[in-house]
Each structure stands twice: as C-alpha cells, then as structure tokens.
Design goal:
Layout: H1 3-15, E1 40-46, H2 65-73, E2 75-81, H3 87-96, H4 100-103, H5 124-130, E3 134-139, E4 161-163, H6 194-208, E5 214-219, H7 231-238, H8 250-272, E6 279-285, H9 308-311, E7 312-318, E8 327-329, E9 333-334, H10 338-346, E10 375-380, E11 393-398, E12 401-406, E13 412-416, H11 432-449
Length: 467
Amino acid sequence: MKRRELIKAILSAMLLSPVAPQLVLGAVRKAPFKQVKRPNIILILADDLGYSALGSYGNQFNETPNLDRLAREGMRFTDAYASSTVCSPTRAALMTGQHPARSGITNYLEGDDLNFLSPSYITINERLKSAGYVTGLVGKWHLTGDYNKKRGAPQAHHWDEIILSETQHIALGAYFAPYFFMPDVKAREPDEYLTERLNWEAVEFIRRHKDEPFFLYLSHYAPHTNLAAKPDVVAKYERKPEVGKSKNNPIFAAMLESIDDGVGLIMQTLAELGLDDDTLVVFTSDNGGETNVTTNTPLRSGKSTLYEGGIRVPLVMRYPAGVRAGVVNHTPVVTHDWYPTLIELAGVQPRDQQPFDGINMMPLLSGNGRLPRDSLYWHYPLAEPHFLGGRSSGAMRYGDYKLIEFFDTGEIELYNLRTDIGESKNLASTIPDKVADLRSMLADWRQSIDASMEPMRPATGTWAKHG
C-alpha cells in the first residue's frame, strides 16, 4: 500500500463515526459557552462547490466523511450564501467584509483585467495580524487580474506566509505538477496532485505556529473546471452503480474526496497538538456549482446566475469552545459576515473608518440567537451574458421572499423560498404589491451603497472560462 493510501486508511479509522449527521435543529449541549481565549481560525474555501455536494447536505454519491464530521460536531447552515455568483467578488467580500457592489469588484477578474483588490483595504488577515495572529494564505487568491503588474497581489496585503498562491492567471487550471500558473513551484513527489499539496502545506503551517494564535486561509483551486483528479480515486467512483445518474460525476467526486482528506488531516493534526477544542474550522464555497459537471438539487440553476443554485452554498463549522454541536441553523448568512465575526472572535476593535457590510454571526454560534437583519442583496451587472448562462441582474432576499431583477430586459421574478426552494413558480404577476415593495428596497439599497450599474467588463474573450 502506498504511503498516502495508508495515511488515508488510518485517518478514516480514526475520524469516521457510525453516528449519522443530525439533520434537524437541535443542540447536543445546553450549557452556555464561555470563550476562555482567542481561537485559532482555519477558513477552508472550495471553488465552485455546489450546495448539495456534501453527505451532510444529502449527497449519497460523493464521500465526505470528514466534512460531515464537522457538521455533526459543529453547525451546518441551510441558508448560507456567497456574496456573488462568481469567484472574485466573493473572495473580495471575504477579505474586506464589504459587499462586492461597494468594493466595485462585481465580476471575476480576467487575465488582462485592470481591476484588483486595492492595498488600501484593511483585509481580514491584516485585522487579525494586528491582534497578534500569524496569518497564512495557502492556495488561490484571484483578486488581481494582470499578475505581471502585481497590483492587488496577496503580498500587497501583508500576509505572514503566502504558499502555493498563483503568480499567473489560472485560466482553466492545472491540478497536476508542473503548475503553469505557479511556474516557480517545484513538485515534492512524482505525479503531485495540487489539492494534496495544499493539504500538506496547510498542516505544516499549523505545526509551525502551534504555539501562537494563527489564521489559516486554505483556498482550494478545486473542484473548478476543467476537472482533473487522481486516477485511482476516479476509478473508485466509476465503479459505483449510481455513476452518471443525477449528474453523479466521478471526477468531481474524486476532487471533492481529496479536499475532504485534507480536512481529515487538519483535524487529526489539531487533535495531536491539543488544539482541536480551541480552533474554529470553517468550510464553505465561493459560489454555486457549475451545472454541466454537478448538481445543486433541489436548487435552481448554478454558477453565474442569481438563482439559488448560483449563490446558496454549503457552510459547516466546528469550534467546541464556542459553537454548539449538532445544530442545523436556518438563518440566512453571507460571505461578508465572516469579517465582523472573526474580528469579534479575535477581540479586534477597529479604530479606523473602513466600513463593512457584514453582520457579526456570534449570536448564532450558541444555536439560539438571531441576527439584526431581514434582507440580503446581490448585484451582478454584465455587459453580456456569462458563458454559463448568467444574465445581468440584481437580487434580494427578504424573509422567505426572493426577488430577481434582470437589468438587460427589466423582467422581474419573485419566489417564496419557504414553499418553493427550487424557484419554479414566479409570483411576480400574482403579488404585485410585494414586487413593488421589494423592488423599491433593492433600488434604495443600490443607492445607499453607491452600486454602479456599469459592468466591470464583458464576461467573454480569451480569459472568459475560469471565473
């Protein structure tokens, strides 16, 4: 047995539990939490991972035991949203706590793009660094367009360590060494698989900084298309009788398994170092999955659209010292909520005037709290349709209602997500008063945040198919 297969077998024996994930609202522990020290923070971001890809979200084809363990021993959100339906805007929102409409990064950054995340922003890693955290970026950044100019590169945002982050535009991706978008990176072993390398680099970062508070941002390039995975893992899924049904994609599943293996390695390492109780581990995605390679069922559509399949994402977290275990939370939350949440956990009190649009999620972590917010907004102006079908549009969710306004035609769609999560019945013509109210709210929000209706640039051309 090869060394990496042996390690995986050992991890599976250690980490798997016969207890099925809890899928109803409830708490294992009732006593209130008393946080005794600042937690270590590990934020793991998948690329284009669909809402229903994990076992804890009902998937019976993909194998995600370690991520399902996070959900079982922590909290799983049913109504978590990405700040955008494509990559770069969500990543900018994560770093700044600002809605993409405020930062101006409303579309993914192309290879010759002049847009970038300005170093004038105080990013979340800089906030945490000011509180004594060691900060590490492992993996994808994608907050600059023209990498040759190095504007907005992660080095400009003062990470302590930057590991395996692209130095050229990623285009359609490369998952086996050599990596064309990281030409200076040398493989550690023959046939090195990028996701595995990222996992090991993350573990080594944890070991290096086990004696000080750390913030690790593990940003995977997978399972973004083009799909590529380890042949032996793909073969395992190809042998499953359900392969091909309901878009059960063996390559996609194999890529996700490698991500899940990394979560297992991280959890084992934290346990070995005595850090597992005092470390917040978060896993989510930058947007919905591409429907040509996966499914977002029961949600409608996928990446590039403002239907639920494009913006609703998995979110699981585990933090025994501060997150109640076994809870399924139905509160709508969004990517840019992480900025105020993490600085609260770290005890950071900003003295500058940089605004953020997220809401501190700390009241939810006990399993019983509420957030002082009743609406969420999205802004996605395009010069022409995205190659995956998304159109220039804006959207909002207010309670159970979801309104989508298409900027290209002026069409309006309205859905009740409580009774119609698949957005199959447009209620716009039957509840005109609700449409008028929500459309007015959406327009007022755009004005309040100074949202530009001008698209960043067309989503076509040489670098189009990688956002």
